[in-house]
Amino acid sequence: MNGIESGSMIDGFIESEVAAGPRSLSEVQQGVMKRAEETQQQIADLFSVQIDVVSKAEEWKEGLSYDPSIQIDAIAESDSAAGMHNLQTRVTTLDTGALETDRDEDYWKRVETHEGVHETQHVAVAQGAVVDGEEDILLPLVEWHAITESGQPDSDLTPEYVSHRQKGDEIAGLIGADTIKTALREGNILGLQEKIAIARLREQLGLPADQEFVIAA
């Protein structure tokens, strides 16, 4: 059995482990190791040959640097997503592709970092809206924040997320990137809305950014 066949076997174990639904990374790792041990013994019993499936599984396990509590599920198929963080339940999930033996480790590390931004910096973001023109841009700004903090290039992103990144860049050029990030961390959605509205009004009136401007109550 060569390395490619061994890798395919490990990928099959991973798929089997999450077939019944999401599981933590540590649970998937334990399940894959158990399957590797059982398979190695079955091959030895049936064919009287020694195939070192366990070493391949251990190599795979040691190569994973994600948070052991992170959830693993087939979300690329069900939700067209590589990673997800539920702001209500505070559960972060990575697609099974993050565990594949031939995975792009740099790509998946950026995905994990992206979801970590949601988990650690968007705790105060509640239901609400940030209106720019006729568009609610709260979600684009939240995703822009995670994209920029994780350093994801457009090649990592779906067309929808490229548009989120573009919208965030536009608003950052209007009121400043740090202003957006601070407002999201603090959950100050109303303050963010006010800053965007004032900046847009400045644009319409042709006022310079450093000119004092007050909206009368």
Identify the notable features of this structure and list them briefly.
217 residues; alpha+beta; 2 domains; two-stranded antiparallel ribbon; 6 strands
Please provide a written account of the structure.
The chain has 217 residues and is an alpha+beta fold. It has 2 domains: 1-121, no CATH class; 124-217, no CATH class. The chain contains 9 helices and 6 strands; from the N terminus they run H-E-H-H-E-H-E-E-H-E-E-H-H-H-H. The protein has helices at 3-17, 25-47, 53-62, 75-79, 105-121, 138-150, 159-175, 177-186, 189-205; strands spanning 23-24, 71-73, 83-86, 91-95, 131-132, 135-136. The strands form 2 sheets. A 4-stranded mixed β-sheet has the order 1-2-4-3. A hairpin with a 2-residue loop joins strand 5 and strand 6 (135-136). Helix 1 crosses helix 2, helix 5 packs across helix 6 (138-150) and helix 6 crosses helix 7 (159-175). The radius of gyration is 23 Å and the shape is elongated. The chain starts with a helix and ends in a 12-residue tail after the last helix. The model has no long low-confidence stretch (mean pLDDT 92).
Distance between the termini: 76 Å
Shape annotation: elongated
Parts with pLDDT < 50 across at least 5 consecutive residues: none
Compute the number of structural domains: 2
Order of helices and strands: HEHHEHEEHEEHHHH
Work out the helicity level: 55-70%
Strand order of the largest sheet: 1-2-4-3
In DSSP terms (H or I, runs of 4 or more residues), the helix count works out at: 9
Average pLDDT figure? 92
Nearest-angstrom radius of gyration?
A: 23 Å
Which sheet architecture does the biggest sheet show?
4 strands, mixed
Count the strands? 6
What structural class results from the helix and strand content?
A: alpha+beta
Note the beta-strand portion: 5-15%
